[in-house]
Amino acid sequence: MRGLFRWSGKWWPGVVPLLVLWGLAAWTSTAPLESDLASRSSAALKDAVLDKTNVMVDGRDVTVRADAFSQSGRSSAVGAVAAVPGVRLVDDETRLVPDAKPFAWSVERDVVRVTLGGNAPLPAVKGKLAEAARSSLKGVDVADQMALARGAPPHFEDAALLLIGQIGQLKDGKFTLSDGDVTLSGMARELGGREAIAAALKKLPDGFKVAANEVKAPPYILQAYKDPVAVTVTLSGNVPDDNIHAVVAGASSRKFFDEKVVDNLKTSIGAPAGFVNAVVPALGALSRLSTGTLVVSDREIKLSGDALYDAAAAQIRLTLPKDVPQGWQVKADISVKPQAAPVDPTVCQQLFSDLLAKGTIRFETDRADIDRDSAGLLDRLVEIALRCPSAPIEVAGHTDAAGEEPANQTLSEKRAQAVIDYFARAGLPADRFTAIGYGSTQPLASNDTSDGRAQNRRIEFLVR
Amino acid sequence: MTFLITFHWGWLLGALALGFAMGWVAVVHRAPGVPRWWMGLLSVLALALVIVALADLVPGRAGYWLELLLLMFVPYLAGCAVGSWLRAWVVFRSMRAKSLG
């Protein structure tokens, strides 16, 4: 042992080559060591929930720079790097992402792209939302401008995904989440889009509510065009459902007794309130025109065309606004068709008979009130009566055989008188007309069938 | 430590070989030894460096190089000790053979 100590005094010359060896070792191993530590530190942070992660190695010391989403996330990230074999010191330069108050997020759609903005709580959620936007709007450019922040309300992801799912319903517009408040604005792509969005938003997670829904829909349009040359009425546009479709189609076929109804209506939700109560009177007004166009757009009714005589034009202008539900606007641009040339009483009689062969004046059951569906027919009859201004006309009422004969007699008289009253309101002198009631004494068909009874209930015109 | 040894085993082996060679030579080397007070001073210096390294006082690359230096000194000294001891044994045996012969 003493010898070893003595010899050790002579070991120093080897220190010089040792130092050279050390210099070489340091020269060659530093870079590989640092890159090895960097790659293993990064691997250790792979599963950590961090953003903007940056690992820098200086010798065996590792600096971790990252945005973390919780205090425990920070410490576990630093711990994971510290546990990497070979790492000496960890310089913790992580920071918590800022706390957003209020936590705002938005999805905006314009013509060319969808932009996701505001804050997302985690990188994974951010990626998921961007992916959801891409998959729900295939072919549309998705711009992800979301920043990361803490403070998202519970179920934020579900609410945001729901809104992304609905952005396709918009042509352009924006959905915004601010804490639990949902704000919607923009224009729906199609009719019913607004309603579909409102229905979908009923499934918003707890804690979220719609603060403002200002999504507008394209105008809800129904159009009708009465063509006197083709003798057609063309219905196009939208009706809210099959029941209302049937109501509109039924009213049209009754009101346009002479014309062929071409029904091009489509079913679509999104109709304004009181739709059917506005459309049916508007179709009634159109039926009184010789030629005309009806456009029902949202709550605005535009009627234009030619009335058959002056009083009809005035009546339509006056009564249609009263007949539609409150909140609806009527713009009636009615002119009057030039009066047809006068004709002989015999021609008049022929015209009356021809017209009444096509349609029947309808009354309320067991009453003498003229059904509103017959206004178009009555106007045509008035027009004929105007063409033979001097001929006295007998208006004859007939009923079917149901009920007591005296009552039928009275009813037939009253109905004939009701028609004369209508003619008087049209400006014709009442003394040209005589009301006669025949009750059920002159049936045209058997009273045993409902068809026969319907034929027997009639008004006839006799030009003297 | 395990990481450092496995990562630098080649260099450490080199230091061991160098130490062995130096130890082998030292037994028969006629050069003057390091004075005792120098030895003491160097030991204190070495101890100080070890303390500095263990306390992680030197940052970054310099700290790593210091650790590497100290780490390479260990096999060097071990090599010196083994080399000197072996050489002394060989020399002693041959001297005894000579004296017997």
What's the structural domain tally of chain B?
A: 1
Give the total of beta strands of chain A: 20
Mean pLDDT of chain B: 89
Oligomer: heterodimer
Strand content of chain A: 25-35%
Secondary-structure arrangement, i.e. CATH architecture of the largest domain in chain A? 2-Layer Sandwich
The greatest inter-chain interface is formed by: A-B, 31 and 41 residues
Order of helices and strands of chain B: HHHH
Describe the structure.
The complex is a heterodimer of chains A (464) and B (101). Chain A is of the alpha/beta class and 464 residues long. Chain A folds into four domains: 41-96; 104-216, hypothetical protein tt1634, CATH 3.40.1520.20; 221-336, 3-Layer(aba) Sandwich (hypothetical protein tt1634); 345-463, 2-Layer Sandwich (60s Ribosomal Protein L30, Chain: A). Chain A has 13 helices and 20 strands. In chain A, strands 5, 6, 7, 8, 9, 10 and 11 form a seven-stranded mixed sheet that branches. Chain A has a six-stranded mixed sheet with strand order 14-13-12-15-16-17, with helices on one face. In chain A, helix 2 (15-44) runs antiparallel to helix 3, helix 7 packs parallel to helix 8 and helix 10 (345-358) packs antiparallel against helix 11 (375-387). Chain A is rod-shaped. Chain B has one domain (2-100). Chain B has four helices and no strands. The termini of chain B are far apart. The mean pLDDT of chain B is 89. Classes of the chains: A alpha/beta (464), B mainly alpha (101). The A-B interface holds A 3-4, 6-15, 17-18, 21-22, 24-26, 29-30, 33, 36, 58-61, 85-86, 88-89 and B 2-4, 7-8, 11, 14-15, 18-19, 21-23, 25-27, 29, 31, 33-34, 39, 56, 59-65, 67-69, 72-73, 76-77, 80-81, 84-85, 88.
Write the layout of secondary structure elements.
The complex is a heterodimer of chains A (464) and B (101).
Chain A: H1 2-8, H2 15-44, E1 50-58, E2 61-68, H3 71-82, E3 89-92, E4 95-96, E5 104-109, E6 113-120, H4 123-136, E7 141-144, E8 147-148, H5 156-167, E9 170-178, E10 181-188, H6 193-200, E11 209-216, E12 221-227, E13 232-239, H7 242-255, E14 260-267, H8 275-287, E15 289-297, E16 300-307, H9 310-323, E17 329-336, H10 345-358, H11 375-387, E18 393-398, H12 405-425, E19 433-437, H13 450-456, E20 458-463
Parallel strand pairs in A: 2-3, 2-4, 6-7, 6-8, 10-11, 13-14, 16-17, 18-19
Antiparallel strand pairs in A: 1-2, 5-6, 5-9, 9-10, 12-13, 12-15, 15-16, 18-20
Chain B: H1 2-7, H2 9-26, H3 36-54, H4 60-100
Helix pairs in contact in B: 2-4, 3-4
